[in-house]
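Action item from last week, closing it out:
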Amino acid sequence: MNFLKSNKNAIATYYVAWIAIAIFYFYQYILRISPGIMVVELRQVFKLTAEEFSSLGSIYLFSYSLLQIPLGFILDYVGVRRVIMMSIITCIAGTSLFALASDIWMLQLGRFLIGLGSAPAFICALKLVHDHLPAKYSGLLMGITLAIGTLGALLSGKFLVTILENTSWQDSLLLCAAFGGFIFFCVLACIPRDKKIIDVQDNQILAHLRRGLVAVFKQKAIIIYSIIAVSVYTPLCVLADLWGTAFLMERFSLERATAAQLSLYLYGGLTLGSLMLPWLSMKWKLAKETIQICAIGMIVSLFILLYVNSISIWQLACLLTLIGLFCGAEMICFAGAAQHSPSSHSGLTLGVVNTLNMLGGALVQQLIGWYLDFQWKGSYGSNGERFYDSSELSAAFSLLMLIIFACWLLSFWLPRSDKAQQDDDTTSLTIESEQGEKAVS
């Protein structure tokens, strides 16, 4: 009886810790989308080209993604608490630097620090769910984690626009930095102290990391899931995080506040999709088929958004919500990859998936910025910034449809969900056997 009570208390403690990390994930989404909300001010004050403005998104994603693999191993080695605390401090420093920037390199350095600080939020939440909470709820809790983060983007859009219209973009970011300080103390109080997750001697760390990477990359399904996650993530990182407000203002002649709020309907749809799609696909063992349906739905929806005229505001809201819902298939990719990973390498596996996912998003953002500058017709706005018309923007964003179609073709090489579970069980038994043999020797 005492054991059961103690076990329930431990699970409750980790539920609270998961909520604290999810709040940090909520916070980093506010920081992530802020350049897209401030697009007018940033391009006017710093006279940014499309490629330079895109760099504010891609630098964030590059620093975010390149930290994922070592971060996954660090989490397996030292735990979550210290990593999250350092992450919040880094986010606060990067946000403050961005707010006080006087040149583009300061903006870029601030975004680099924000990317580094934001990197652990999602993977820490997923690892805690995978390692400490009931397995039958893992898909649902992973989806809820993403949904909480997207609410940060969805709810903060109108708030940031209101501040921008009444004060300045610098003040809004300094307020975000202060909110980060509050979250730091919440995390400090709620997350249990670190414990070593794996027992590795200091002189064996690199060797263990190498063995872990080999084990992860040997799993073909993990790599395929990672690449497909790129395709279902790119509409968010391009439209919701960066170019959505500018695109909607130009293509549909909308006011900035309306365009900013509409672009965040993508996150509203993602909230629904990340809750529904992983749970339903795992329940019915139709992960592969669900991903394929979402990919086709996303291509059709993007075509309507980019090339169909006479779309009303409510139709536009529904269309963007639908695209965001299809983007929820990203969580199926994380859950599917986790099925092929033993618990001893769960952090490393999630790090690999998130690395390829975010790195792909960063490359796509930079590619679109380069393409916009390449086809630029030489027009300038009233404040001296480069002007891109709706046809130029639509042509650049058409690259998203090509990427999604390529990854839809790749999805046919995914195993079925029931086979994935069988393979995961076999892999776990093999690794346990190998560890037993090493212990005996």
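Closing note: DSSP finds 18 helices and no strands in the chain.
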